[in-house]
Amino acid sequence: MNIGFIGLGNMGSGMAANLLAYCQREGHQLSVLDINPAAVALLEAKGATAASSAGELAAASEVLFTSLPSSKEINALALGDAGILNNLKPGAVWFDTSTNEVSAWEALRAQAVEGIDLVDAPVTGGSEGAAAGTLTMLLGGDKEVVERYRPLLESFTKRAVYMGPAGAGYTTKLAQLHLNYLVAQGIGEALMLGAKAKLDLNTLYDVLNNSCARSYVVENYIPKVLDGSYDRSFKLGLAEKDMRLINQLGEHLDIELTLGSVVYDTYQKATKAYGFDAPHLSVVRLIEDQSNTLLRE
């Protein structure tokens, strides 16, 4: 089977590496594409084939995966004569692992020719999970198609969960991210309470991580605030984009996201202050700057 993978960033590089190992065990071929030649070269050295364009890769792939920053990049590669949709062959399947807009994906599905399946397949678990092959994939689309390719999907994930029809995967991912970003801002405020009260922040972290407040965000993000790195594995501007998608989904579903709108506003302010490429926990840096207090010893 010929498999294609587009997007070898923090998430895509780990997924593609695990997928390549599976392809080599099972006798499949993996071709990869990215704007960063070094990322392509790393996988090429391990046995993947480098593709020259999205159209060429789509035409050669029975199964295509994409891992891209936003709908802007997805649409740029999908549309036009040399795009993915115009070059996928009938019978091909496209799994998009990005965090995308439901409406944008629906528009692409409407333009796909008969016989091509598009499945929203966003993943959660961070770049460390992508490298370790322990991601959770959230799938929306034709259940028969999902089950047909389950061994392939499970080759680079710990869980591949079918959530429902097209759009269900994206909706689930946005619901998960909603909680993630609420808690990310919450840890900044909780730590600031401790700092202003002159508590030892490492001890406070240990208490939070061994209480009902424990979560992935508490466990993994607080150390990256306390060491001042703010977690460079994910960009602040992408977090702001995610919060925009969450609020847009709320509007679409006629839900008043009171907390979501407040947190989105905070991410917008942080991105304006520190830039798109700043680490995503710079949202906590904003709290530090507003309080004139650094959250570290």
Number of strands: 9
Total number of domains: 2
Point out poorly predicted stretches: none
Radius of gyration: 20 Å
Question: If you had to describe this structure to a student in words, what would you say it looks like?
Answer:
This protein has about 300 residues and is of the alpha/beta class. The protein has 2 domains: about 1-165, NAD(P)-binding Rossmann-like Domain (Rossmann fold); about 170-290, N-(1-d-carboxylethyl)-l-norvaline Dehydrogenase, domain 2 (Orthogonal Bundle), CATH 1.10.1040.10. The protein is built from 15 helices and 9 strands. The strands form 2 sheets. The protein has a 6-stranded parallel sheet, with helices on both faces. A 3-stranded mixed sheet has the order 7-8-9. Strand 2 (about 30-35), helix 2 (about 35-45) and strand 3 form a beta-alpha-beta unit. The longest helix is centred in the middle third of the chain and has 29 residues, at about 170-195. The termini are far apart.
